[in-house]
Write a structure and sequence with these properties.
The complex is a heterodimer of chains A (about 300) and B (about 325). Chain A is mainly alpha-helical and about 300 residues long. Chain A is built from 14 helices and no strands. In chain A, helix 2 crosses helix 14, helix 4 crosses helix 11 and helix 4 crosses helix 12. The longest helix of chain A is centred in the N-terminal third of the chain and has 37 residues. Helices cover about 75% and strands about 0% of the residues of chain B. In chain B, helix 5 runs antiparallel to helix 6. The chains are: A mainly alpha (about 300), B mainly alpha (about 325). Chains A and B meet through helix 5, helix 6, helix 12 and helix 14 of A and helix 1, helix 6, helix 7, helix 8 and helix 11 of B.
Amino acid sequence: MISTTAASTAQQRRGLKRFLRHRLASLSIVVIVLLVLSAIFAAQLVPFDYRQPNLLELFLPPSITHWFGSDDLGRDVLSRVLYGGRVSLLVGILAALVSTTVGTALGVISGYFGGWVDNLIMRFTDIMLSVPTLPILIVVGALLKESGTPLAEFFARFGAAKNILAIISIIVLFSWMSTARLIRAEILSLKERDFAQAALALGARAPRIMFSHLVPNALAIIIVQATLGVGRAILIESGLSFLGFGIQSPDVSWGTMLSRAQQYFLIAPWLAFFPGLMIFLTVLSFNYIGDGLRDALDPRSRA
Amino acid sequence: MFKYIVTRLLQAIPTLIAVSVLVFILINWTPGDPIDQLGLNNPNFTQEDYQRLREAYGLDKPWLERYSRWVWGVLTRFDLGFSRRYGIPAATVIFQQRLPNTLLLSGAALFIALAVAIPVGVLSATRQYSFFDYLFTFINFAGISVPVFWLGMLLIYLFSVQIPGIFPAGGLSSPEITYPAWSEAGFWSDWWRWLFDRLRYLILPAITLASIQMAAWTRFMRSSMLEVMNLDYVRTARAKGLSEQRVTYKHSLRNALLPIVTLVGLAIPQVVNGAVLTETVFAWPGMGRAIVEAILNKDFPVAMAAILLSAVLIVVFNIITDLIYALVDPRISYS
């Protein structure tokens, strides 16, 4: 599938065509590219320092100078939204990549070996699926906030990135399960196919069969899962930050902005409107891209 | 069937142990124990007092011993510990004050989600690729992508700030309207007033919490319906000359509804998560809000009880769902 023979490039071209036919997915790609670019070049784009309070400009509604208005400390909301996008997008993308990798690895191992390995991994997956995720994330988030706890000390060694790394790790912990299940089911059917049996007959070892023969054939599912995972991770991060247990000041994410905005909601609704709209647009776009990729890569699964 | 129920209940035990051990350890890592709080306001509180009290309450013991004691207390005396904040048993806080509110909110949300998802899913499927279908596909995508707490804030802004007086911005009920005492004269009018008041407070948070399931279930209902509509027996029904309406509602819908049952059970973890956020936005005094408050106030017995109860709810609903599925779908048996 990822080789460059004529047949597979034709297949890729057909896939690309199918993806482009999904207009909303194509539009979503544009939105995401713009969002990522604006996050990367936030420093060049923002008109104001996102951390600089300005006591003369508290709670200004959206205007020509402050497109998204200003907040309770007189900081420019547009600048904060762009910087917040850095954290939210980074957390979402990295968490999705890691959790898809973890889920794929566990799913492949479970599906390929079967027997007690499969049983162990799948029972563990079942347990994780019936855990109340957000409440436990709140407990972990509270632990990370306190200095001196074992968890906080572990992450303290990462310096400035500790906040983001900690959030990514705890999101990954609770979001690999659906990928693991889907991949396991796919591997169960793939490993009976001729090409896998042929590799086995040729004497290939288990890791080789799993990772050079089976995983590439499950790539469609993996890519779709990773894309949808970004949206899910951004929603978890924003929810956790909204409750005050996620990203901590001075770092800013869309979720933390909403958390502050809640107090001033009645007098300054724009503080809540724009960060929330960004979360919504980003997650919506990733979901559309995931849907488009599913149509393009795995046409059989069209609902 | 009985054997199946027993097996499922036994399988639930590792989950509950895992959740309780995890939360217990995490909470024990958090600095500050109940004795610290006692010492804060008392200048005569010495280090010796502190040690003595720790020993008296068994807080100097290793966590495994304290965990076993806690579990023993829960199982034998239903003793979930004492709320440090409210000074009453944690079980009272959770079961009497918070759980009923959460059940009301979640029940209302699931009801709304089903009431919207089933008809819209059927209409989308029977008019596949129509304008209606495209519109609702978009709304579904929006529904699974919107952060619930932001949706809640939008609804508050639109329906209680812009149009004041109908939907309150938060809370459980108006303080001046209580459940009426029985009296021949004005009971029923007071009762209606009470019901109306509760509904006013319930509607916005319930819609907010329903949003994810509404969207996800509509999509599922649509594809489930499309699948059934192409089966042979539906074609047979049509070939017999039955009306399209009869084919849709009697033959297709009834079978398309079966898998929906499983979704309700699978949605419970999401509802628990959503309830935490929704209750925070709407200041709804339920269990989700209790967890957030308990962690913020270091009221750990309440946090522990609420999280464990959430896990129990998830597990129990999963089992109930599987049983109902077996009841409604004769093709499945758990014997």
